[in-house]
Amino acid sequence: xADIIQLLPDHVANQIAAGEVVQRPASVVKELLENAxxxxxxxxxxxxxxxxxxxxxxxxxxxxxxVTDARLSFERHAxxxxxxxxxxxxxxxxxxxxxxxxxxxxIAHVEMNTRVGDDEVGTLLKIEGSKVLSQEVTVTPKGTSxxxxxxxxxIPARRKFLKSNQxxxxxxxxxxxxxxLAHPTVHFHFYNxxxxxxxxPATNLKKRVVNIFGNKTKEKLVPVGEETQVVKISGFIxxxxxxxxxRGEQFFFVNHRFIKSPYLHHAVMxxxxxxxxxxxxxxxxxxxxxxxxxxxxxxxPTKTEIKFDDEHTLYAILKSTIKHSLGxxxxxxxxxxxxxxxxxxxxxxxxxxxxQPGITINPGYNPFKESGLEKSIKSTFARQxxxxxxxxxxxxxxxxxxxxxxxxxxxxxxxxxxxxxDEQGGLDQIGATTFQLxxxxxxxxxxxxxxxxxxxxxxxxxxxxxxxKSITVKETLSQQLLFPLSLSFSKSELAVLKEIKGSLxxxxxxxxxxxxxxxxxxxxxxxxxxxxxxxxxxxxxxDYQMExxxxxxxxxxxxxxxxxxxxxxxxxxILDNESQQALVNALFACKETNRSPxxxxxxxxxxxxxxxxxxx
Length: 616
Ligand code: ADP
Ligand code: MG
Description:
Blueprint: H1 10-21, H2 25-38, E1 43-49, E2 55-60, H3 67-72, H4 100-106, E3 109-115, E4 122-128, E5 131-138, E6 143-149, H5 156-161, H6 165-182, E7 187-192, E8 195-200, H7 205-213, E9 221-227, E10 232-238, E11 250-254, E12 257-259, H8 262-271, E13 284-289, E14 295-296, E15 307-308, H9 311-328, H10 372-385, E16 434-437, E17 441-446, E18 449-454, H11 455-473, E19 478-488, H12 491-507, E20 510-514, E21 518-525, H13 533-547, H14 555-567, H15 577-588, E22 603-607, H16 608-614
Parallel strand pairs: 1-7, 11-13
Antiparallel strand pairs: 1-2, 2-6, 3-4, 3-6, 4-5, 7-8, 9-10, 10-13, 11-12, 14-15, 16-17, 17-18, 18-22, 19-21, 20-21
The structure holds adenosine-5'-diphosphate (ADP) and magnesium ion.
């Protein structure tokens, strides 16, 4: 057989390598920003068009490159950062694999202008799909500017795979945040479609965090600091009350490199133990400095995962450092989240005197007049009519707020002679009689039996359809605020708000002008309480950011989902009888009644036969 193995041509090898290094525009941004940092830049500009699909340009004032270096920089495994394998253990640069520029040039149209400080003129290089098109002498400022156009122009499958411009921009913003947070002393500019998104002057870490995430961040931060032989830890954690359901604003940096580490995240969570509401996690900006020889960064092409020599010690030190900070800044548990809410006395009952259960004795009772069974049924209903239900149905609460105790619970069996299920049918209108079970379910009767409805999910469905309708029909119930509310947001949050402003207005929000980092709210939907507006907006933005990630839902659907989740009644909330019935009726007026907007079952039916079967 003839020999069949051949070496791949460079441009093919580069394209294959690009598959690992460049997944999307954000990967290019990361690599180029890192190169600028490695070149010692003090000011870096990031310029993006159309989510990076049309243009990504990075301009730095760093070292620049000589003509030969400029040409070599696009070769695979060409790097100035290491000479031998030994150097891998003393890395103080971001890059070292010498792959990024070669990979990027294999799959895009690249132009590089670069000049070394001492030289009078610089070099302009144009490369497309690994082919050098031209190399010229040029007049250019000191430093390097790389522009990457038409990413994946020669890999249509990859280009098609890209998400919307907004989603790609969000990924780019994430990478930008990571690098900007790792290097607060570098001045960063970020422009998207000619708009300035960020202007971050050189400063200290705290101000950098505030510049990126908005003024409101200031009050959330607690400093963290510890120096041991193994590691130096610095940075900030958020106070526990600002913990969120979404996992934004969580950053680990090791030797100024952003890394992902579920293990260290666990250490942080462990130190917040007992301080967080269920399913929430705190924000943090934690900087670890370790001996470069004690870590291995080379385990992943994008270098966001690293291996530590002694993870366990690091875990323990991190945990105790954060605990210490929380203690020092007087952040101690305020609420006991583990307590069973069902054991709490309902608010309106707090000041009421406990009543002794009364025993009513029938003085005219003659045991020989009626059979035992007949007697017990009758006395049961006699008590029921006198409103003395408590002792029979402990745990079935109806509205306590009206001060009517438990007497408002109505059961089908209220009428002594009526059978629970009307044989002719038709009598049991849905929602006519209801009661709440364990502050979680609403039980109601239907012709064929009974329904057990999850109150939270039912309410989500009702609100969801209502919001969707408001957005599409634009018939809104809005309440004008007497005093407009000013809320501060980070730039990226404001960008999201601008994006969804139209839909929010249809929902009943009204806005004043958007400023640098503040938004004025002049009107809110009638369903929302003014005091909750800050929390709801935060939740809305983070849900929107997570959900819109190209999973096929429209903006209206995503927003309606986010809002209904925030506003729906929750497990543990007491509903009075009227509300229960209104909810049941509203649910069955919905277009879809079986599933919540999050595709969860809303109710189950238990038929008379199911019940009969239990008695066999
Ligand atoms: P790596 O960063 O892993 O070395 P790259 O392909 O990203 O590999 O870059 C190759 C080389 O090009 C770098 O080692 C560096 O010498 C040079 N280089 C890249 N970008 C810049 C820049 N912005 N300024 C100066 N030199 C650069
Ligand atoms: Mg690099």
